[in-house]
Amino acid sequence: MKKTADNCAILKSDSQYTIFIFKDQVIRFATSSKLERYTEVKEWDKGYLVVMAKYKNLNEMEEYIDLIPILQNLYYDVDEFLAPIKEVRIDYAA
């Protein structure tokens, strides 16, 4: 896995999964099988992402990802996990 800044998380997709990586934590969750890739992170707000995404046979569109309920379902301490993250970037090489 590619080294990133201590306060930067990575967002990418693989097949029908979204992948969120921060430090040594890799969180995968189901997404549309039509998702080709995320193209831009427009906003990061303590667990809430606004991103641009490209879907098969559709124009690029704005999407919203709320990580808080996902982290809660995985029994993460949400505040502790999210607090150090200052930036999220897309990196399909990570």
From TrEMBL:
Name of the protein in question: DUF7724 domain-containing protein
Sequence ranges assigned to domain DUF7724 in this UniProt record: 8-92
Pfam family, one: DUF7724
